[in-house]
Amino acid sequence: MDSDRCQFCRAPILWATSPEGRPIPLDPCPRSDGNIDVENGVTHTWPLGKRRPRGDRYVNHFATCVGPKKKKGSNDETAVSPDAPVQPGVTDPAA
C-alpha cells in the first residue's frame, strides 16, 4: 500500500485498491472496529456487524475525514492546499 496525505484534511492515508481496481483511501492505523482488510494491496470489505477475520483491519478514510467536503456536481474548490498544516481535531474549518 502506498502512503500519502488526504487532500481535504492533510491526515496521513494509505492507498489500497478495490477488487474492481478503484483506489481506496484508508486510515493508516489498523482498528479493532475496522471492516476492511488488505491482502496484496487489494481490499476486502466485511459488512458491519458480521464476524471479521483476525488480523489488521482498516477504516475507509472517507468515514473519518474531518476536512471540508466537496459537494457532488459542485465546481467549488474545497481541497486544502498541499502546503497547509495538518490540523487534527478540526471539525468545522469555517468556525
The share of residues in helices is: under 10%
Low-confidence stretches: 76-82, 86-95
Strand order of the largest sheet: 1-2-3
What is the straight-line distance between the termini? 35 Å
From the alpha carbons, calculate the radius of gyration and give it in angstroms.
15 Å
Write the layout of secondary structure elements.
Elements (H helix, E strand, L loop, with lengths): L1 E4 L6 E6 L5 E4 L9 E4 L2 E4 L50
What would you note in describing this structure?
The protein has 95 residues and is mainly beta. It has a domain at 2-63. Helix content is 0%, strand content 23%. The chain contains no helices and five strands. Strands 1-2-3 form a three-stranded antiparallel beta sheet, with no helix packed on it. It is globular. The termini are far apart.
